[in-house]
Amino acid sequence: MQNELAISMTHIEKSYGDFKALKDVNLQVEKGTKLVVCGPSGSGKSTLIRCINGLELIDSGTIKVWDEELQAKKMQKIRSEMGMVFQSFNLFPHLTVLENLTLAPIWVAKVPEKEAKTRAEAMLERVRLQDHATKFPAQLSGGQQQRVAIARALCMNPKIMLFDEPTSALDPEMIKEVLDVMIELAESGMTMVCVTHEMGFARQAADRVVFMDGGEIIEEATPDAFFSQPKTDRAKLFLSQILHQA
Amino acid sequence: MSAVKVKRIASGWEKVLNVVLLIGIAALVIPFVKWAIIDAQFAGTERCTNSGACWVFIKLRLQSFMFGFYETAELWRPILVLLLWAVSIVSLFKVSYGRALRVLPFILLGMPLFSWGLLDGRWFGLSHVETTRWGGLMLSLMITLMGLSFAFPIGLLLALGRMSKLPLIKAGSIAFIELWRGVPLITVLFMSSVMLPLILPPGSEVDKLFRVLVGVALFTSAYLAEVIRAGLRGVPSGQAEAAMALGLSGPQRLFLVVLPQALRSVIPSLVNSFISLFKDTSLVIIVGMFDLLGMVQQANTDSYWLGYATEGYLFAGLVFWVICFALSRFSLKLEKAHA
Q1: Measured between CA atoms, how close is B94 to chain A, in angstroms?
Q2: Which residues contact B17 (CB under 8 A, 6 or more apart)?
Q3: Cβ contacts of A217 within 8 Å, gap of 6 or more
């Protein structure tokens, strides 16, 4: 079943008032694919990823996850099987690191508390933060917080992971520790959709790159093809700006 | 510590001001201490003959100040009730948040019912003590605690209602909140005790204290609603989104993620509401109930003990102050613990 579709989006339209955020977007993500979505700010890439788990509602079109259409009724189940990592971490500040990790397993997946703790500790070890279980998020650095956020999502045993600019809010010296965790995750075969400007990550871990601008998908290619021979002028301009920055 | 201490040399005017202030304070404090402690009389059962304060009056009246006209043989009931309240409130803050959340509904519903039942007596097969006999500090505390137990859930619903996207619910919540906030508590009490019986069908007798409780609860809920709403608005939307992305249901997002953060940020305002409600319970005197202050006033009119009103009011003030001060220290501690 190499071609089993994890996510399929067809003819997605979404606007905020007069502003068209997504224009006829079509996207297919097969199981095990690591997809990187990039584009200038305001291009609709965050809106796109937020539509996949229903944080934003689409105006028209269909989104299917594992061949099941996104509907209000099934939303909670679909979300619980899909991890999401945010730009601003969004850890729960009133809970310890361990409680952040066990909250959803206990209340959503109804895992017994002990088992949830064991799993959470294993996930913390995976992101190399096992010594910080009893700390509160405010006591951690940005990079550590983002790794906790990844661990928190992984505790629900998701089949798909969504990353919405996971490194954009980090100090430069902390980006690598987060990317390392993401690369490890990619190597484990997880289906991933990442909105990111980290071209190093895209080259190293992605199977496919989608370039968006003005709410449309402009280019879709393998990382090698996209970086060495972008087809459109807009992509060329974007890449030159990104690379100029780095 | 090797901090360099710079000694400020006071100017001439400042020295004069200091001395004047010190003399002023001494002129107030020394006679008070002399009256309240040195010349005061503590022992005895008769009217005092000394020149200072007569605390004998307070000592003899203490039971009625604390419990009103509650029967002496049955005093274990209010004591037990107040102890249980203390234990359940303290334990709420000792256990983990998840567990506190699970027991809170039982406390909010169970404790008022149990308190009422035990004090009244009939549900437990004990002798019946009418609510008209309840009084003193116990009455103030019961009205505050029971009123808050009902006001808190209603206030939360109103806060959510006011933030709702459904126009009817939103308008209804706003109307309710503004109506109750715009009316003084004394009016609410007066309405509940005098006007309500006129509206209710004849023969349907609702206990006066119960009517007062309902009035207090609704009045307080409107204030709590605005405090809670301020807290809810202060929680970043990313929190609810992260909870949503983990698959938490609407109520789970509210109670596990948003509400604990919201309440934490408004602890000072919440405690403020509690304190003002506790002090406002003295107003029940206008509907013929006697809280601590009411009992003191009553005692002042005792012809044998005429002339000791100062002692009485001072005592009532002190008790109110101690409780309110303890509450505000407690809120400071809570704030620090969750900073």
Answers
A1: 16
A2: none
A3: A25, A26, A27, A210, A211
pTM of the predicted structure, to 2 decimals: 0.84
Contact A49, A164 (CB under 8 A): yes
Q: For chain B, say whether A163 makes contact (Cβ under 8 Å).
A: no
How far is the C-alpha of B243 from the C-alpha of B245, rounded, in Å? 5
Amino acid found at B131: T
Structure tokens that stand for B35 in this block? 């009256």
| Interface test mutation site (partner B, options A107, A113, A156, max chain B beta carbons within 10 A) | A107
Q: How many CA atoms lie within 13 A of B296 on its CB side?
A: 20
Q: CA A205, CA A51: separation in Å to the nearest integer? A: 23
pLDDT tens-digit readout, B270-328:
999 999 999 998 898 888 889 999 999 988 888 888 888 889 999 999 999 999 999 99
Interatomic CA distance for residues A94 and A89, integer angstroms: 14
- Distance of alpha carbon B337 from alpha carbon B339, whole angstroms: 6
What's the rounded Cα separation, in Å, for the pair B233 and A37?
Answer: 32
Q: List, for residues B60-108, the tens digit of each pLDDT value.
A: 889 999 999 998 889 999 999 999 999 998 888 888 777 888 888 899 9
